[in-house]
Design goal:
The chain is mostly helical. The protein contains 9 helices and no strands. Keywords: Signal.
Length: 267
Amino acid sequence: MVLRSSFRSIMKFLLCVCIAFACSVATAFQPSSSFSPRLGETAPDPHVAIQAADSQPAGTTTRPEFFQAVAVGSVAAVGLLPRVASARGFATLEQAYERYSPRIRAGGEFYRKDLKVLVAKNDWAGIQNALQEPPKRRKEDLTKADAGVAARARQAGEFSDARVLVAADLYAAAFSDNSISAKTKRMKEAVEKMRNVVAKMQSIARQGLGQESQGGIFGIGAKKVPEAELAKQIRELYVEGGNSWNEFVFAANENMPLQFDRLEYVK
């Protein structure tokens, strides 16, 4: 998708250059209008006009003037291109987009489809698996070539912090340079909201599975929350998380160059 969008952007750029080139040629060879003096202005010296007419035909332009006009038109065409929304430049933004946007897109699609179904069914085990973090590194992982990173990553839930939200955080950082930009702050704030929602969803899923209780001291006197109440809470959290996701997407898509496909909202 990125390559196709980049191709369309290149074609648009070439079209702009061609249009600017044609306009520059037309302007360069257009006869100059006659001088019409206004009040307070002095009419041109007729002797100077005759001397200019002897050097070149009236209404024509010199070769240097022609190439100067073409150069100005080309620069103007380049100015029509969308500016990169990052102080680090196009290359850094492109790398971050290609690296993290697939995980972000997959996470958003899972949230609005699969996770929505799990929440509607009160599938506590399914919700827990969808949000679970990968296991911590074990001693035996050190003997593997990649220290067990790939194996642990496969165990991360489809909307876990490690799989989706970390990628969203890193993508947000690509819009800042020496100082944190307002765009990065907005994106990271939305990610932090989603992170809190995920943590609460994990807690509700554990309660639904009987792995966690509310209240009491050191587990004494804790009460089990009714299923209906857990269902109500998880649905409210789903809506809250969806709104936070849309805030992230809105901030990410704002002022993005045309060659990048926009992230999708949760509806």
